[in-house]
Amino acid sequence: MPMIPQLPAGSGAFILMHDVRSVHNVGSIFRTADGFGVEKIYISGHTPSPIDRFGRKRPDMAKVALGAEDSVAWEMVEDPLVLVKKLKKSGVRIVALEQDERSVDLKEIPSISMARQPTLLILGREVEGIGKEFLDISDVIAEIPMVGKKESFNVSVSAGVAMYQLFG
Using CA atoms, how far apart are residues 136 and 154, in angstroms rounded to an integer? Predict the structure, then answer.
């Protein structure tokens, strides 16, 4: 079975996790991001970081991330909207993963190698979703089509599906 090629460091694959509250989901996203060669993860809002408020490594996240919290660069961001605007201005494609009337099928969005453009994937809250201010500034709002009875996947599963399409 052929391996999925990883993007080299400096490739321009970025993630913003805003208000992703579950430490286990965050750890899982770190681990998946490492597998797809994500250059940097930005953390904002109520999203837990790999280091607790006392400067110690979080064992609950480390248990899920299995070291990816050390191998993927990350940064706490005070104002994520300022970050997104700055990245967009510098030519980074902004992709919000959300169910919205403006959403397009994730499969329709070209991968980073086909688009030849650095990409920021925005992930948000499990139930409430990504805020309107982020959706309005995004270049595209992507949705994963659902076939079953449930309306959505868990945020870490959705992140993995999106990374496969965008960064794989």
Answer: 23
